[in-house]
Amino acid sequence: MKTPDLEIQLKTLPNSPGVYQYYDKKGKLLYVGKAKNLKKRVSSYFNKKHDNARTHLLVKKIANIKHIVVNSETDALLLENNMIKNYQPRYNVMLKDDKSYPWICIKNERFPRVFPTRRLIKDGSEYYGPYTSMKTVHTLLDLIKGLYPLRTCNYDLSKEKIESGKYKVCLEYHLGNCLGPCEDKISAETYHDNIDAIRDIVKGNFKDSLHRFRSQMKAHSEAMEFEDAQRIKEKIDILEGYQAKSTVVNPSINNVDVFSIVSDEGYGYVNFLQLSHGAIIRSHTLELKKKLDESDEELLAIGVIEIRQRFNSQSSEIYVPFKLDLGDGIRVTVPKLGDKKRIVELSERNAKYFRMERFKQTKIIDPDRHVNRLMAQMKSDLRLSVEPRHIECFDNSNIQGTNPVAACVVFKDGKPSKKDYRKFNIKTVTGPDDFASMEEVVFRRYRRLLNEDEPLPQLIIVDGGKGQLSSGVKALEALGLRGKIAIIGIAKRLEELFYPGDSIPLYLDKKSETLKVIQQLRNEAHRFGITFHRNKRSSAAITTELETISGIGEKTVVDLLRHFRSVSKVKAATEKALAEVIGPAKAKIIFTHYHQEE
């Protein structure tokens, strides 16, 4: 029950957009959220039962509610994002990526320097970025320096000091890397023309620079200055080569941000592509740790605001895979077809690849996190009430009813537990009856576990469709375990998953980790069962001929095969050699059996 204080606070909340904060009884900030309507959103936490355990625990801890009213939902998003980063409340989505990124700085100087930096100083300088890797920054700066020679010294190149002859050109000038502004060998106006062209390049617009270089090349050619024309042509080639490396989408798509998201039970991955003049000039994926079972819509809204702030994006339009409400300042487009749709799909593909890389890294660095995520994913995908930490899978093997056997393989935390594998000889079924065989082995397996007080699995998988599943369910009913252990069947043809009492199968994504684990279980059960069946069949084939000899029992057959290694060697052995192993009386019987015609 809510305390009276909370009830009063809920009743007096405004119906306006804003940000709310939950505090515990010690005054510690638990959670920050944003809302279109503060009263409706906050009240919803207390008016319904929460399936998510963490949300339920959060609501129990809330002792005080504060709020801030803002003008629009966009303002609420921005404020929420800033407060989460500043206070890092326990129950809010966690930004996993908080490192500082490199920028390209055009210094606020008479002859500006252009250089990389990770520190933003508010001195009137221009900063472009941030970039997701320093390698990208160096590649871009190498391109710029190859096209436009710029100074690298940090002298104060004021007009008075240059006219007074205070500075002399350095080695960079003689190497052709600098045009010598320190001795007034290039005017401030010409230098700034180069800086304007550099601004366009770092923004992804190569068109003006290419046009300018082509005009210069043509002018040099007409003046018979072919060496100068060749130097300009080399610059054009460099610029065109760099531009070709960008993914050209569609020249009509200009200054647009593209966002997409993929998520699992524990994390969301928001990918960002920035488009300028028809080309992708930036890509970045943000990892968000869920805290309260947040939806993809909530995570994507957080990701959009965070990334646009971090990369200082001024784009007025964004493309996303589904509708988002980000306020009036941003135009949200959900493309349905064409190049716009393809670029959103490209963003989704980048997010998926990022998630796969994270999975692989996590398996190595933090196996426990990988297992926890996988178990939570399987619980969700298979609609289970608990995580399937212990899974058992059954498979029958027989050829036209001969030597019927069954296998049970066990996976714990998503990995094979081979010491727990079990194989069964079918005892009560005659002929090739897979349904009855499945019922027998499931019954025997769990009757034994119950008798020995061993832990039961959270999930049973039977290899087969509705028939084998019904047999497994019958066995569980006979033991009083129906409803206590989840049981499903997997049919081989289309990888359909069947549930008791449901005629419509469940189809999982062919690439899903849950299906891969189930397939691994099924394949392992099949392999283990077939191996047992083959061994039993070959053992039967070997021993049949010897055991049919009157007066020769199983122990004698075993002794003979252990010594002679094969039936053919037993046939070829002398009576004396046989007698040394099994005694003269039985040796005479076997020798006579094989040599009676002689």
UniProtKB/TrEMBL annotation:
The UvrABC repair system catalyzes the recognition and processing of DNA lesions. UvrC both incises the 5' and 3' sides of the lesion. The N-terminal half is responsible for the 3' incision and the C-terminal half is responsible for the 5' incision. One of its GO terms (molecular function) is excinuclease ABC activity. This is UvrABC system protein C. Residues 272-471 form the UvrC family homology region profile domain. The lineage of its organism: Bacteria, Pseudomonadati, Bacteroidota, Flavobacteriia, Flavobacteriales. Its main location: cytoplasm. The keyword Chaperone does not apply. Pfam families: GIY-YIG (PF01541), HHH_5 (PF14520), UvrC_RNaseH (PF22920), UvrC_RNaseH_dom (PF08459). It comes from Leeuwenhoekiella polynyae. SUPFAM superfamilies: C-terminal UvrC-binding domain of UvrB (SSF46600), GIY-YIG endonuclease (SSF82771), RuvA domain 2-like (SSF47781).
